[in-house]
Design a protein that fits this description.
Layout (H helix, E strand, L loop, with lengths): L4 E13 L8 H5 L1 E18 L4 E6 L4 E6 L11 H14 L7 E7 L9 H16 L6 H15 L7 H8 L2 E6 L5 E5 L4 H10 E5 L6 H13 L3 H23 L2 H15 L9 H13 L3 E4 L7 E5 L5 H9 L4 E3 L9 E4 L1
Parallel strand pairs: 3-5
Antiparallel strand pairs: 1-2, 1-12, 2-5, 2-6, 3-4, 6-7, 8-10, 8-11, 9-10
Helix pairs in contact: 2-3, 2-4, 3-4, 3-5, 4-5, 8-9
Amino acid sequence: MRHELVRARAPLRLGFGGGGTDVSPYCDEHGGVVLNAAIDLFAHVTVQAREDDQVRLVAADRDQAWQGPAQAPLPTEEPLRLLKGVYNRFMVDYAGGRAIPLTLVSYADCPPGSGLGSSSALVVAMVEAMRRFMGLSLDPYGVARLAFDIERRELGLAGGAQDQYAAAFGGLNLMRFFEGGRAEVESVAIEDRILKELEASLVLYFTGVSRESASIIEEQTANMRSHAQKSLGGLHALKAGAFEMRDALVAGDLPRFGALLDAGWSSKKLLANRISSSGIDAVYDAAKSFGVFGGKVSGAGGGGFMMFLVDPTRREGLKRLLGKFGGAAQAARFTSVGAESWSA
């Protein structure tokens, strides 16, 4: 049954370990492993039926809008390529090529280029919204696979697959990625007290620099295809670290988990030249001197959010220190809920 007005949301994520191993060709040849957790920042979407023959697409947080006659496919050049791509796929696959007049409005709880997977979470939220709007049945695997296919294959945007699965499933997960786009999501069961302690220990710091991840990922992919040993060794280390991080969390050993974050950041910087910068290094060195257990840049690197693990009694002091670098520090909370939608 089709609905006239639908809202949906999908969570953003923190990538703890293994990020980059979910990107082809590494995951095709070696199998990728990622440990991540959904946080209570979301990508939001509203889909509403229209009475005329128009399609209106709005990215409210970017103050961008596009409107034109309902047709399938819509032209997928900028602006709003992601929104157009999702609309086109649903019209082709589920409307028999017929163009349905509608208004789609999107926004996210963080700036673009944050390193929290906001672009992919937005695609997941759109897929979930369109699924309900058109009365379709898709489980989280189906939502994530469709979002990945639209973003990576149809629109050709560089990146891996962890963001789509984190947004679709929610929670703390160890994810495995294989050739042909196959993925397995394993929920990591830890005691509630450990999860609360992890929340109490985490500090996020937005560098104030939004970055375009595609160019960094493309360099990483080129290094992998040329079998550059430094890059390949870094990816192998990141993959092994994801398992070690999971085990440290299950055991409740947060200092060990923080040290593994630190080791993973060192490995991550081997993958491409622009993953770090002098500004990022200055912030990281100051945090290490302050006494954090460890940290890293979230996502592909180059800017966006950094994360640090510190004794909870020193968290406010760390936030004050980080604020001196001109960015914004904040706490983080996890969510066990993945993409969800409802009729408004």
